[in-house]
């Protein structure tokens, strides 16, 4: 009798979708929610475009090595877009979902917890790809930025972007646990992102910043993402204007990989499904 009863249960278990399948479905849902939430859509996709247009119209000049200041600035904004979609977006979005009880309800369902994070990762990857494509199209059309002309540079662009957005995503998930409530998340996250942009060579030429700022920025991933992207889109001669007078791509890979590992460990140790209160 028990065998007869167990057969339908076993068949149902075999038909139950796995964590990856559920995560991809969750990712599609995350993208729909993102597209329908105007603040996320405007801040993540349109705000970087607006900043490029404003700074491109207001500031002119040469960053050195035959590179205009706008071309230098656009490569930094592409890196900043990865920070916004990975770190800033998740560090604000997750606490809001936690405060609304969304995470607590998800924990009470049969869905594997990993599916929630897979969904977030899918959303970040798609949105960051769209953001990067928009900024690149604008830079090529209006500011004379040259696209990579070799397979090596495209490969560098791929691994710098992938490692960068992975590090930012993991750090955004970990940082989301610092906010006690969803209401506090924007005020805790936005200043951090802005400060990192100012000291990491996004709004200013990195070597023109004070030495102590450079040392602080070198500890965080944004500086290395921006430097890796400059190696892709700026002339080879510009490497002489970097701090080490080279692109240091090996160190870029090492630092970003280290932040991916550190971010994963922090996620495992700190992530919360309910508010501290």
From TrEMBL:
- Tell me the membrane topology, using the record's own terms: Multi-pass membrane protein
Where is it found, in Gene Ontology cellular component terms? ATP-binding cassette (ABC) transporter complex
Q: Which UniProt keywords apply?
A: Antibiotic resistance, Cell membrane, Membrane, Transmembrane, Transmembrane helix, Transport
Location comes to: Cell membrane; Membrane
Q: Which one Pfam family would you cite for this protein? A: ABC2_membrane
Provide a GO biological process annotation: response to antibiotic
* PROSITE patterns in UniProt: ABC_TM2
Enumerate the spans annotated as ABC transmembrane type-2 domain. 39-274
Q: Which residues form the signal peptide?
A: none
Q: Which GO terms describe its molecular function?
A: ABC-type transporter activity
Q: Which residues cross the membrane?
A: 40-60, 72-96, 117-145, 157-178, 190-209, 252-271
Record's family? Belongs to the ABC-2 integral membrane protein family.
Q: What is this protein called?
A: Transport permease protein
């Amino acid at each position: 009798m028990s065998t007869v009863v167990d057969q339908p249960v076993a068949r149902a278990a075999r038909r139950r979708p796995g964590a990856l399948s559920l995560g991809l479905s969750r990712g599609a849902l995350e993208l729909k929610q993102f597209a329908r939430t105007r603040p996320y859509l405007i801040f993540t996709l349109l705000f970087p475009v607006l900043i490029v247009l404003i700074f491109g119209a207001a500031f002119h000049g040469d960053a050195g090595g035959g590179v205009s200041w706008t071309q230098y600035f656009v490569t930094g904004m592409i890196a900043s877009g990865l920070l916004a979609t990975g770190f800033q977006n998740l560090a604000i979005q997750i606490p809001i979902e936690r405060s609304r009880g969304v995470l607590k309800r998800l924990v009470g369902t049969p869905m594997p917890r990993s599916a929630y994070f897979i969904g977030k990762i899918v959303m970040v990857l798609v949105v960051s790809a769209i953001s990067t494509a928009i900024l690149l199209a604008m830079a090529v059309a209006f500011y004379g930025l040259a696209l990579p002309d070799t397979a090596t540079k495209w490969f560098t662009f791929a691994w710098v972007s992938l490692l960068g957005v992975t590090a930012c995503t993991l750090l955004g998930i970990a940082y989301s646990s610092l906010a006690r409530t969803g209401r506090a998340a924007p005020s805790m996250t936005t200043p951090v992102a802005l400060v990192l942009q100012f000291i990491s060579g996004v709004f200013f030429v990195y070597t023109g910043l004070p030495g102590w700022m450079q040392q602080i920025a070198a500890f965080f991933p944004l500086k290395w993402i921006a430097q890796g992207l400059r190696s892709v889109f700026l002339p080879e001669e510009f490497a002489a204007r970097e701090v080490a007078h080279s692109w240091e791509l090996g160190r870029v890979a090492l630092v970003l990989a280290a932040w991916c590992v550190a971010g994963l460990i922090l996620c495992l140790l700190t992530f919360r499904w309910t508010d501290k209160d």
